[in-house]
Amino acid sequence: MNTRLPVPTPLLLSPAGSLPAVGSALSAGADAVYVGVRSLSRGGRTGLPAGEVGAAVAACRRAGARLHAAVNAVPPAGGISPFLAAIRRLRDEGVDEVILNDPGVIALVRGEFPDLPICASVGLSAVNPEDAQAYRELGANAIVLPSAVLPKEVPAIREASGLRIEVFAWCRAEFLLHGKCGLTAYAVEGAGGGRVSPKRGGSCHLVCRRFPGPKVPRSLEEELSPWVAAGVDVFKIEGRELSPAAVAVLVGRFRRKLDAVLAVSGTG
Predict the structure, then answer these.
(1) CA 253 to CA 248: how far, in whole Å?
(2) Which helix (H) or strand (E) holds 257?
(3) Residue 116 lies in a domain
(4) Is 150 strand, coil or helix?
(5) Local mean pLDDT, 10-residue blocks, the chain (268 residues)
(6) Structural domain boundaries, residue 168
(7) CA pair distance 40, 11, nearest whole angstrom
(8) Phi, psi for 265 (deg, rounded to 5)
(9) Measured at the alpha carbon of residue 234, what is the angle toward residues 50 and 118, in degrees to the nearest 5?
(10) Does 3 map to a domain?
(11) How far from chain centre, in Å, is Cα 264?
(12) Residue 164 backbone dihedrals phi, psi, to 5 degrees
């Protein structure tokens, strides 16, 4: 098993939907990269084939960076054994952390892999200290907070739970609380005419873009200072569907902004 890297603080976490995007993120200064894995992650073609995960780990190691895997699809009934086998392969290939999107799955993976770091996905919609404590008790090491949470709320969540705190530095506009949207299940048909569940192997089809609502991405680019002061451990950029060039632009921009804030605060 490969040795996992420690977590720098604060960490800049970049998306990547392909091996070229992994390279772009690392060249632009990401401390860590998160990828999807086909059949294990929402996002369809933005997930790496299983055979490319090892190459992504190797690229991150050469750059002194971490690789996280978004395993945010819930295994179907009767699919637990293959699911756990897939998690074992990710662990053995050197993935530093898995991002999980279901309380039962968190408990299951923690029981099977006591030493594998787990991040509770934004899809779980934790918004207060009690929520975060519950996911810590299930086995999470980190949690992604929805964009509705304010900087002043972060210290209490972090202190009560002891979890590493992640927030989105850049994400598409949301008119519902992160993790609470079920529009895909009602608006998109799957194979055989059944409804599509994003958490059960499906994919978010961005149904929200068909409705009036905010379109401009939410960005903390000019607001990083209060989040750093609040004790945020990870600034995450959304967008595994972004091209390698777009990833490079976003990561480079936030790298410069975050470094400037850390230099002023004395934490860099």
Answers:
(1) 8
(2) helix 244-265
(3) yes
(4) coil
(5) 73 97 98 93 76 97 97 86 96 97 96 98 94 98 95 97 97 67 56 52 62 79 96 96 97 98 82
(6) 11-265
(7) 25
(8) -80, -15
(9) 45
(10) no
(11) 28
(12) -75, 135
- Is 49 within 8 Å of 86 (Cβ atoms)? no
Cβ atoms of 47 and 40 closer than 8 Å = yes
* Residue labelled with tokens 């054994």: 81
62, 223 contact by CB (below 8 A): no
How far is residue 80 from each of residues 53, 109, 111, measured CA to CA in Å?
Answer: 21, 10, 13
Q: Give the global pTM.
A: 0.88
- In this prediction, residue 31 carries a pLDDT of 98
Bin 210: left if φ > 0, else alpha if -120 < ψ < 50, else beta: alpha
Strand, coil or helix: 165: strand
Residue 64 lies in a domain: yes
117: CATH = 3.20.20.70
Q: For residue 1, what pLDDT is reported?
A: 47
- Note whether residue 71 is domain-resident: yes
User: Shortest CA distance to 198 belongs to which of 58, 97, 73?
Assistant: 73
CA 247/CA 33 separation, integer angstroms: 11
Rounded CA separation 224/167 (Å): 11
Q: Domains in the chain: how many in total?
A: 1
CA distances in angstroms from 219 to 67, 226, 229, listed in the order given: 23, 14, 17
The token duo for 5 is 């890297």
Residue with tokens 């530093």: 96
Instruction: Give the CA distances from residue 55 to residues 48, 62, 134, 162, 186, in Å, rounded to whole numbers and listed in that order.
Output: 10, 11, 35, 32, 37
Rounded (10°) CA dihedral 112, 114, 115, 121: 80
